[in-house]
Amino acid sequence: MRGQTAHIRAVPRGKEVVRTVKCRAVIEKGRAEDLLEFLRLWRDRVQWIVDLIWNLPKVPTESQLHQWFYNILRQQGFRAHHVKQIYKYARAVVSGAKANGGSKPVLRKLAARLDKYDYELDLERGIVVLKLHNGKTVMLRLLQRREYLERYRRGWQNYELVVRYENGSFWVCIYFKRRVEFYVPLSTLVIDVNLWSISMLLVDEVRNRATVRFVRAPFEKYLKFRWRAHLLQKQYPRMWRFSKRILARVRYWFRLLEMC
Predict the structure, then answer these.
(1) What percent of the chain has pLDDT over 90?
(2) Where are the alpha helices (DSSP H) in the chain?
């Protein structure tokens, strides 16, 4: 950390923490063909919107996209929140591609993002029910350890889900969030690690005082012993493993390394 300055960042209260649970899934109830058809329709409609708005001088707002495509997509059997996720994702793809100066995106992967109103999640049983187009539903069983899913049952809130088809298998990514309350620290410890010494700064907020301490670091001695062992191994590349005299010397330097 030579030449670097330690920074302390205060985390605001009520910050939201997001976690993702990714696991493979199998069809428990329903038809896999219905889910594949939904994923293809979702991808094709996103690509259709991308093709229509790509040549516009300015990327439309979500309100404009809602007015243009909501009724059309609803007539094709999509649920209300399906439509919202489709044009939001299409807008994000176009905005990202134009910001990076790329060409018109072409979507190939079969994946769909569902809002919390379009699926039912049961972590206790490890299943998720997806609400597809035209009133169809599919139940998936999550192939994940129950003790891993149990940690998200209390205190966490799921809000979105991504389901995709890849290499002949269905995968589900569930997004959880929670609001975390952080406490005010009573003291702050800043550590600066150098080659010859370790510097520690302790700031006590209660007593309103700061303490600085220096501890001699063994890194210089460690590197010296390691380099001597390396020189022996380099000088006798074929003999040091079999010669008792050279091997004993190499072991001697490594024993000193363990004592650092």
Answers:
(1) 49
(2) 32-53, 62-75, 80-99, 146-150, 219-235, 244-259
